[in-house]
Automatic annotation (TrEMBL), chain A:
Lineage: Bacteria, Bacillati, Actinomycetota, Actinomycetes, Kitasatosporales
One Pfam entry name: PaaA_PaaC
Protein name, per record: Phenylacetic acid degradation protein
UniProt cross-references to PANTHER family, sorted A to Z: 1,2-PHENYLACETYL-COA EPOXIDASE, SUBUNIT C, PHENYLACETIC ACID DEGRADATION PROTEIN PAA
GO annotation, biological process: phenylacetate catabolic process
InterPro entries: Aromatic_CoA_ox/epox, Ferritin-like, Ferritin-like_SF, PaaA_PaaC, PaaC
GO cellular component terms, semicolon-separated: cytosol
Taxonomic source organism: Streptomyces brasiliensis
TrEMBL record, chain B:
Source organism of the structure: Streptomyces brasiliensis
GO terms under cellular component: cytosol
Gene Ontology terms for molecular function: phenylacetyl-CoA 1,2-epoxidase activity
Protein name: Phenylacetate-CoA oxygenase subunit PaaA
Organism classification: Bacteria, Bacillati, Actinomycetota, Actinomycetes, Kitasatosporales
Pfam family, one: PaaA_PaaC
SUPFAM superfamilies xrefs: Ferritin-like
């Protein structure tokens, strides 16, 4: 079975989960309320579990996580974006979890190499999506301040939302159908949150879209430096 | 549950006003404690018992949430994905422990907001151990093995505490703490058996965390401010020195198995007592850290306050949304 796992696709999915898990892990000890310490850690742990399975399909999980250079990572630029305020973290999660839930539902039904992982993960991701939706409603339709912060966060991350729907080699999914469903779902959540779909390009020269090709944004290098430092300081050591 | 002694439910406003009634309630309370029964939230209890419990449970809850900081300090640098998952799960557990404990305190009539306010303004304390820094990855192991080990030694007797909700919260917490202690030991074992640099990292961490861990049991029995009354009320079931001795006796052979040494030249087995003798604890350091002069007191409370203050708008949004959508006053935003 491992012989049939497409490397590019496994890295794309695995790196998305690994990198977003890391970002969520940065919240530990900083969350706005104790319940969110538990919730954000829970999502981070689910994603880390998925990343470990996916990376292990195509190599040693630690070699892949700790010894690749920035340009070899295949994650979306969306997931590497810094946490920002809680609204940015929620907007990022809404955009990503909606995409991941739609994609994994399709992969789970596909019978391809990722079907077993996707079938298990899709149950976890349904909760991540619900959590992001519930907070989007509360922040959008909460106070004037939270509305404005959520509006800004959705706008700031909007340019990263075209990238998830670029075809990935070895990933057998109907990306244009996914994109339609994504726009519909996110549009509906934002409307219920008294917000509107942001304006501006989602693809093209001035939007993001090259994470899958190994082109990342400036904060990502710093994130990797922190993540990989200790492992790389002790070459060959076991932990 | 059948009870040998008659628990008396406190009718609203009765205690403190009717002396004869209070005396009767007090006898029922004393009898329940003497019979090793649990006091429950609706039972009458002396004001001082209630206040002591709130103080102790709050301090414990605060310790859980402040204690997240030194370990969270290493989540983003964990050297393998397996270790990262374990550490994240552990820090998450601590947030969960905070939640159970604040809820236990709430059963005594004091809410989480009030307790957090007291923590942030310095009117309530957390365990001083968390005012020490985590300087290397091995510190994560040393905290698990020694700090969580000391916490378990302290907390296992609390599973039999006279106050029901606290005792029940402690049963669950102790199970999770026991897992934390084992992961710390296993982490140190991997380092101790690893490269010379890893071994040195583990030894250095144990050298720095050993004495502060012994201080976690609190001052010697004859100087302990709250101990006697807490023992009588069966909130506390073993003395500080007794628990400290038990901890040392457990740790010495474990250190040997780890291939690490404990930084105490006076440590030796006392055949006669059947216990390990250990050197004098530097209580000046303990009192200094307690007074706020430890290496990280300022940083810990500052980070806690910052997270709370920066999260205020999120909590307000949640509250405002709840009002709008439960038929409250505010209408939906146009």
């Amino acid at each position: 079975m491992t012989a049939t796992v497409p490397m590019t696709a496994a890295l794309a999915l695995g790196d998305d989960a690994l990198v977003l898990s890391h970002r969520l892990g940065e919240w530990a000890g900083h969350a706005p309320v104790l319940e969110e310490e538990v919730a954000l850690a829970n999502i981070a742990l689910d994603l880390l579990g998925q990343a470990r399975v996916l990376l292990s399909m195509v190599g040693d999980e630690d070699d892949l996580a700790y010894l690749r250079e920035e340009r070899a990572f295949r994650n979306l630029q969306l997931v590497e974006q810094p946490n920002g305020d809680f609204a940015h973290t929620i907007a990022r999660q809404l955009y990503f979890s909606t995409y991941q839930h739609l994609l994994y539902s399709e992969l789970a039904a596909s019978g391809g190499p990722f079907a077993p992982l996707a079938a298990k993960a899709v149950k976890e991701v349904a909760y991540h999506r619900d959590h992001a939706e519930q907070w989007t409603l509360r922040l959008g339709d909460g106070t004037d301040e939270s509305h404005e912060r959520m509006r800004r966060a959705c706008q700031a991350l909007w340019k990263f939302t075209g990238e998830p729907f670029q075809p990935v080699e070895g990933l057998d999914a109907g990306f244009s159908g996914l994109e339609t469903a994504w726009l519909e779902s996110v549009g509906d959540v934002l409307r219920r949150a008294t917000l509107t779909l942001p304006e501006g390009a989602r693809t093209g020269a001035w939007s993001a879209g090259a994470g899958r090709q190994g082109l990342h944004t400036e904060p990502f290098g710093r994130m990797l430096a922190e993540m990989q430092h200790l492992h790389r300081s002790h070459p060959g050591a076991a932990w | 549950m059948t009870t040998a002694a008659a628990h008396r439910t406190d009718p609203a406003g009765a205690y403190g006003e009717d002396t004869a009634g209070t005396a009767e309630f007090e006898r029922a309370f004393d009898a329940a404690v003497a019979a090793d029964e649990r006091i429950e939230p609706r039972d009458w209890m002396p004001d001082a018992y209630r206040a002591t419990l709130v103080r102790q449970i709050a301090q414990h809850a605060h310790s859980e949430i402040i204690g997240m900081q030194p370990e969270a300090n290493w989540i983003t640098r964990a050297p393998s994905l397996r270790r990262k998952a374990i550490l994240m799960a552990k820090v998450q557990d601590e947030a969960g422990h905070g939640l159970y404990l604040y809820s236990a305190a709430e059963t005594l009539g004091t809410g989480r907001d009030e307790l957090l306010d007291k923590l942030h303004s310095g009117r309530q304390k957390y365990s001083s151990i968390f005012n020490y820094p985590t300087l290397t990855w091995a510190d994560v192991g040393a905290i698990g093995w020694l700090v969580d080990g000391a916490a378990i030694t302290n907390q296992v007797p609390l599973c039999r505490c006279s106050y029901g909700p606290y005792a029940r919260a402690m049963v669950r917490i102790c199970k999770e703490e026991s897992f934390h202690q084992r992961q710390g030991y296993e982490l140190l074992l991997a380092l101790s058996n690893g490269t010379p640099e890893q071994h040195a990292m583990a030894q250095d961490a144990v050298d720095r965390w050993w004495w502060p861990s012994l201080m976690m049991f609190g001052p010697p029995d004859d100087e302990s401010q709250h101990s006697a009354q807490s023992m009588a009320w069966k909130i506390k079931r073993r003395s500080n020195d007794e628990l400290r001795q038990r901890f040392v006796d457990i740790c010495v052979p474990q250190a040997e198995s780890l291939g690490l040494t404990l930084p105490d030249p006076d440590l030796r087995w006392d055949e006669e007592r059947g216990h390990y003798e250990f050197g004098a604890i530097d209580w000046t350091e303990f009192w200094e850290v307690l007074k706020g002069n430890g290496p990280c007191n300022e940083e810990r409370i500052t980070q806690r306050r910052r997270a709370h203050d920066e999260g205020a708008w999120v909590r307000e949004a949640g509250a405002a949304y709840a009002v709008k959508h439960t038929g409250g006053t505010g209408g939906a935003r146009a």
